Structures are given as C-alpha cells and as structure tokens.
Amino acid sequence: MAKDILRFQQVLKAIFRVLFRIVSRVRVTGLETLPPHPPFIIFSNHISWFDPILVGSFVPGPIHIMAMEGLFKFPPLGMLLRLVGAFPVSRGLLDRSPIEDAMDILGNGGIVFIFPEGGIGRLRRGEKPRPGISLIAERTNVPLVPIGINGCRDLYHPLKILTRRVRINIHIGAPFLITSVSGLPGKKMRKVAMECITREMYSLARE
C-alpha cells in the first residue's frame, strides 16, 4: 500500500507542477536545505486552498499531509486524499489520533506536512497556532523544516492568471530540532517552540 501511495503521489505531483507552472510563475528557494533523508516535518503558513497541493508538488519525497477532517467526509475526495497519503485532523477537538498517525509515519521514515495555523489565515485573525506540531516534534525528535509561501491567493483571480501576473514564492528555511530551540522541559519547551515555528514560517513568507 505504501508503494502504491508513493507511485500515485509521484504522478500527481508531476501533473500539478506542470499545471502550476502554466497558470503562474513559481519560484522555489531553499531546496538544498532540506534534510538529505526523511523522516522530518515540514510546516507552512496557510493562505489559500491551493497551499497543500502547491507545497506537496514542489517539495520532493513522499509527503503525508495532515488535512482537515471535513474534507474526508465527501467519499470521493476522502478516498483521493487517502490515496495520496493524507490523514485527518479534527479542528478544536482533543484528538490524539492524528498525533499518533504522524508519529507512525515519521517512525516509518516518512515526511509529515502540517499547517500549524489549523486553517487559512487564522494567525492573522488573532487565533493561536495549534500546538500539536510541537508535541509530535518533541516525541520524535525529527527535524522541523519551515516553509513560507506567498502569492497563492492570486490564483483566485482568473484575470491575473490569463495575464500571467500570478507570482508564487515557496521559500524553504533551514531545518532545526525542537531541542535546539529551548532547554526547558515539557510544556515550557513546546511553548517556546511554537513561538519559533510561527516566527520562522512568517519570516519566510515575507521574503
């Protein structure tokens, strides 16, 4: 099953890379900073519905996206998401399943993709980031790779697409371990880590 997911994902990634390059000018920087081998966690700011597909298409490797549970409730879409290795997370509920799923994926040498905001533009609306990523990083001690994206919202405007004015940037930052962020224990370390995670992805998104 894992090999089937990888093959199917590779085909989709190639298709979407072509589509994105047709409708926009995509610039990717920092690919050389990615860890040479998984497991690791990538995380990004979240500004549009295109973000998971965009990042998933241009970052190499078998990526497992932590996606909103509601997307899985529509059977055809849910089946497609599972075929590409995505797994559900509930908004606003104390659910350990996605954390355990992420740890299993990382334990098997995979790449997990998380949006710490838990939704589109939530930090900009004053909401706090979801702390699950720091807990997963603490328990697995795998590298965290920050990504900042901008320009995706222009894909909502057909005129900009037709006139080739959509410029999308994907900036990949240097990986770091959660233990390098703070020497504090438990919740205190995770709190400092979340501040660092938020700062890193928004700093890259402004570039």
What does this 3D model show about the protein?
There is one protein chain. The protein has 207 residues and is α/β, with parallel strands linked by helices. The protein has one domain. Helix content is 43%, strand content 17%. The protein is built from eight helices and seven strands, in the order αββαβαβαβαβαβαα. The chain has helices spanning 2-23, 51-58, 75-83, 97-107, 132-140, 158-162, 178-181, 186-205, and strands spanning 25-29, 40-44, 63-68, 87-89, 111-114, 144-150, 167-172. A seven-stranded mixed beta sheet has the order 1-7-6-2-5-3-4, sandwiched between helices. Helix 1 (2-23) crosses helix 2 (51-58) and helix 4 runs parallel beside helix 5 (132-140). It is globular, with a radius of gyration of 16 Å. It starts with a helix and ends with a helix. The model has no long low-confidence stretch (mean pLDDT 87).
Biggest beta sheet attributes? 7 strands, mixed
Could you say how many structural domains there are in total?
1
Question: What do the pLDDT scores average to?
Answer: 87
Which percent range describes the beta-strand content? 15-25%
Concise account of the structure shown:
With 207 residues, the chain is an alpha/beta fold. It has helices at 2-23, 51-58, 75-83, 97-107, 132-140, 158-162, 178-181, 186-205; strands spanning 25-29, 40-44, 63-68, 87-89, 111-114, 144-150, 167-172. The chain has one domain (2-205).
